[in-house]
Amino acid sequence: MNPKVEEIKQQLDQFRVEAGEHLEAFRLQFLSKKSELQQLLGEIKNVTPELRKDFGQKVNDLKQYAQQLFDDYKEKIENSATIQTSGIDVTRPAVLYTTGALHPVSMVMNQVCEIFEMIGFSTVSGPDIEDDWHVFSALNFPQDHPARDMQDTFFVNVNPEFLLRTHTSSLQVRTMESCLPPIRVICPGRVYRNETITARSHCIFHQVEGLYIAKDVSFAEMKQVLLFFAKEMFGEDTKIRLRPSYFPFTEPSAEMDIECKICGGKGCNVCKHSGWVEILGCGMVDPNVLNDCGIDSKKYSGYAFGLGIERMAMLKYKINDIRLYFENDVRFLGQFG
Ligand code: DAH
Fold first, then answer.
1. Which of 167, 191, 256 gets mutated to test ligand 1 (max ligand atoms within 8 A of its CB)?
2. Which end of the chain is more exposed for a tag (fewer CB within 10 A), N or C?
3. pLDDT number for residue 318
4. pTM of the predicted model as reported, rounded to 2 decimal places
5. What interhelical angle do 36-43 and 49-86 show, nearest 10?
6. How far apart are CA 268 and CA 81, in angstroms?
């Protein structure tokens, strides 16, 4: 190799560029018109033809090498200049910001309320700690009804007249006692039952109760409203069916199923191979309940329904264990926001 080329290469490798002034010195020494490297380039044409190609190649490679070094140093210095002047270390790993999100139970509860609000229902709320009248007596529960049993109900220790509401139907009573018909409300809330906690049941869960009282309200109207709800909630192609049932506060009473979303009605574990899943209870408000709550049952009639939010969210999001809602594991909760 040409000794001059070799010498300049060594100088290039030894040159330290750590600040702006070094960069300028580097440029003057290796890239300016007067630099040795530039002079070598000028000499190419004077070299004998048989050596010219090889020499030219080497000098040009060296020139490119010098230019590349210069560009790299320049970029490095410019970056460190911004870091110093702005006071921000752009190389530092970013802090992970986690944002909050609604709990899936709140999301589904809001969704249910929004659907009924679209068709004129207003949302009301009331106390979790209730008395026997609002939870049972006014709703036509006989004195010996098993739901009043210690097995199902949490009573308040210091005064067993009070209890944790076992359903949000208590808000039907409160609304009828304080409002004149027509009444069209939905009542979301938390409810409590003295039950063993398993994958399918919990001692705390959420319900949305619905109540419509006006003149000449029919069962057919209720069915249509509930069909509208099911389609909004689970999709336009959702099918429903009503099965006769019994609740003390409605007559006639029914339970509403939707076609199982998991197997499309073919039968699976979730629907216990029936193709249908129960999502709510409903019925025409019993005249005794209307009268007990101060509404003339000869003038007015109405329907009521109650649905469980956790169950609905389990179906919607294909969750197989109700306990997950209450464990506050963000890996689970973060999947819905
Ligand atoms: N309160 C009932 C429960 O907790 C649900 C229910 C059924 C509410 C029928 C209603 C109804 O308003 O008409 O199981």
1. 167
2. N
3. 85
4. 0.72
5. 150
6. 65
